[in-house]
Amino acid sequence: MKILAVFAALTIAAWPAAPLAQTGAPRYEVDRAWPKPLPDRWVLGGLGGVCVDAQDHVLVLNRQDVLEGDLNAGHLAPSIIELDAAGAVVNSWGDPALLDPRLHSCFFDKDNAVWIASSPSGMVQRYSHDGSTLLQTIGKKGVFDSSDGTAKGKALNSNAARFFMPSSIVVDPQNGDVYVSDGESANGNRRIAVLDKTGAFLRQWQPEGMVTVHCMTIGNDGLVYVCNREGSRIQVYDKMGRFLKNIDVPWKPYTAPRDGAPKESGGSAVALAFSRDANQRLMYVINQNNSQIEIIERQTGRILSSFGRVGHSPGEFDQPHGIAVDSKGNVYIADNRGKRVQKFVPAAQ
Fold first, then answer.
1. pTM for the predicted model, two decimal places
2. Cβ proximity of 233 and 248 under 8 Å
3. Of 15, 24, 62, 69, which shows the fewest CB atoms inside 10 Å?
4. Which residues neighbour 152 within 8 Å (Cβ) at sequence distance 6 or greater?
5. pLDDT tens across 253-264, in order?
6. What three-state secondary structure class fits 141?
7. One CATH from 3.40.140.10, 2.120.10.30, 3.30.70.240, 3.90.1150.10 for 2-346
């Protein structure tokens, strides 16, 4: 029995939902050697997000929501942790006076500066790559020029650019416009807000049927892809907010509910990332309801494969929350309740 259990654990993350020859989707397996052990007995909290920079370094957002007793065995890990391709920590930073404790997502712009969205405070911040300088803050108290490295500054806009609970952020490489999905909470704004590179408000729209606007990104095709978390779909818009199409992300419980009504456990369209080829043929979507990653053909919306399952062994997830893809096709998943980041590599064919 032990041999069978070990074999299952080794292969679970690499087995596709359909044969490779039928789908053309890559198979993935978890890299058990990544990341390397964290230094100084660091203790991670829940992980809100993950993103990859131009050097394929991985930035991890640590929410630091650690029980006090857990620190008997170690030290609280920093809010922002940078890992190199080998999984070694190369930098860490984060001033609690400037960063929101509930970090939600991050994005590297074409200048390799990092943008961070934080939910409760409503802040969207831009930092230098090494985190040493806070370059800009957009949030509840208005838009600030924070080039002095503090949260203070001259208010440039005090109303339209305020956010309720921003969940993701992306910068248009063509003109520097900043797109923010604003509304992780059902009681919030539930919108996509667009600002220019100075933080001045340009426009907004409310995606149809959204309870929470949980993630958003812009594809190489110039279209805006928005997660309808509870609606089990990705909604696609042009940059002016004109709806174009839905990409369904269906799910079903493996255990039939007693009352016949499936119960959501986070949604089937929680976070997304594209493959790094020029055409971005593949879209990777976190499905929290089934605790797996769906591999979707972007243009057709066809689900080609999936990997992962619920659990705490290598290749398994407990509330996966953030996703990123590097230039070599490796997929990184930030696990919130699992309190870890995992790397999945394309398996040999």
1. 0.90
2. yes
3. 69
4. 144, 146
5. 999 999 999 999
6. coil
7. 2.120.10.30
